[in-house]
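Class, discuss our next protein.
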Amino acid sequence: MKGIIPSSILALAALASAGPVAERQTPEYVGPENGTLVIIGGNAQDDAIYQRIIDLAGGPDSPIVTVPTAEGSDTYDDDAAAAGTFRRLGATNVTVLHTYDPRVADTEEFAAPLRAARGIFFGGGRQWRLVDAYAGTLTERLFHEVLGRGGVVSGSSAGASIQGSFLARGDTATNQILVGDHQVGFGFIKNTAIDQHVLVRGRQFDMFDILKVRPELLGIAIDENTALIVSKNDAEVFRGTYVIIYDGGFYSREGSEQKNLPDSSSIFYFLRNGDKYDLGKRQVVV
C-alpha cells in the first residue's frame, strides 16, 4: 500500500485547493453587480434619458449628485452638468459637486453629499480632468459605493468614457489621440473602452487605435443623444440612434452568410433602440 494516498485525503486536498465555496459561486460581471450605469454618447437632449436616470435613482426625491469637472470651467452654477434638467423634470434633491484638487476630493467634507446619493451624473468635457481630480480619492470610492447601494451612475460624452476601465481619448493635449497619457478610467464597467459622439463626428473607425494595442478589450462607441443602460452583464440601447460594438464578431438583422466581411481585427456592428447585448458572452441577445 506504500505510496497510495487514501481517497478521503485526496478529496479534502482538492476541496481546500479550490478555495472558499462562496468565492467559487460568485459570478463575475462586466458591468456593476449592483446598481445600473446609464452611458450617453454626448449631446443628451432627450428628456426620456434623464427621466430614466431619475427613476433608476429611486424617484424624484432621491439624492442626485452632478459632477461638471470635465468641462474645465473656472466656476459652475447650480444648474451645471444637467442639474437644471433634473430639477426641471421634478428631481427635488440635486447637488452639484466639483473640485479640481484631489486633496480636497479626498476629504470627508467635500465628499459628504455622496454618502446619501442614489444617482450620479458626470457632465461632458475632457475625461482626463475627472481622473486628475478624483482618481484614488475618497470621492472616487464613494462613486463606486453609490452602485453598491443599488443606485445609478450616469454620464454623457466625457462622462460616458470615464465609466470604462480603459480611458478612450484620455490625452491632455488633444481628444484626437485615442491612447493617451491617461489610460485608466473609473472602471464601473470592466475590460471595456467607451467612445462617444461616434457617428456625428465620424469616429466609427477610431476605436481600432485602442484595440490594436489592447485587443482584449471590448469596444463600445455610442452616438449622440443615445444611451446604453448596463447592469451586471446586461446592456440595452435606449433611445437615440446607434451604439457600435467592437467584439471581433458581427451581427446583422438580415444575416451575414452572404456578406463579404473584413477580418475580426477591423469589424464592428450596430445596435439600435431596444437591442440587448450580453457583456459576458460578448454577443447580441436575440
Confidence is low (pLDDT under 50) at residues 1-26.
